[in-house]
UniProtKB/TrEMBL annotation:
Entry keyword set: DNA-binding, Transcription, Transcription regulation
Domain HTH tetR-type: 20-79
Protein name listed in UniProt: TetR/AcrR family transcriptional regulator
Pfam families associated with the record: TetR_C_43 (PF21597), TetR_N (PF00440)
Keyword S-adenosyl-L-methionine in record: no
Length: 200
């Protein structure tokens, strides 16, 4: 009687789920470490902090730039989801909530800031779907805010995105990079410029 083949302890689906969990753990760890320590941290240290082997990190992200880009795209997609949720509300000023969150994310995370300012890479080239999704959500909320009269009527979505990118330079110039309170204060001042004169 032929011997039975060995039983694989994990199905392909379980393996895929395990790999997905590892990838998400590496992304979350890298996001925290890039935000706290910048790009200087080695991939092997990210692996150690994530509780996975170096090979796991290198398998998903062959270079630090690849991991940096993945962190940025992941965070941008989270902002897209926030925009989607805000669009489902009836808040006419939801635009300011999303823009504040974008500025806070960029102030907290160098990868997000690079994506929004096209500093290290141009998100429109690296992840066109994520870039278009975020611009789309901002445009939707801008249209609603304009109709409600809570934003000046002569501003375009491209100008709004440029204002967000410029805000990071203002935050850095003021030395507020490491202070969430000061960076949020500067963001509010900058965003007030989008309001109609009667609402400032």
């Amino acid at each position: 009687m032929p011997a039975e083949p060995p039983v694989d302890p994990m199905t392909d689906r379980e393996l895929r789920a395990d790999a997905r969990r590892n990838r998400e753990q590496v992304l979350a760890t890298a996001q925290r470490l890039f935000a706290a320590q910048g790009l200087g941290i080695p991939l092997d240290e990210i692996a150690r902090r994530a509780g996975v082997g170096p090979g796991t990190v290198h398998r998903h992200f062959p270079t630090k730039q690849a991991l940096y880009l993945a962190v940025a795209i992941d965070q941008i997609r989270r902002l897209v989801d926030e925009g989607e949720a805000l669009a489902a509300t009836d808040d006419p000023a939801a635009l300011f909530t999303l823009l504040s969150r974008m500025m806070a994310s960029g102030a907290e995370n160098a990868a997000v800031k690079s994506a929004l300012t096209a500093a290290e890479f141009d998100l429109r080239d690296a992840a066109p779907d994520a870039a278009a999704g975020l611009t789309h959500q901002v445009a939707r909320l801008l249209d609603r805010a304009r109709q409600a009269g809570v934003v000046r009527d002569d501003v375009t979505v491209d100008e709004v995105m440029a204002i967000v990118a410029g805000a990071f330079a203002a935050i850095r110039h003021a030395g507020a990079d490491t202070s969430p309170e000061r960076s949020a204060h500067l963001a509010r001042i900058i965003l007030d410029g989008l309001r109609p004169p009667s609402r400032r």
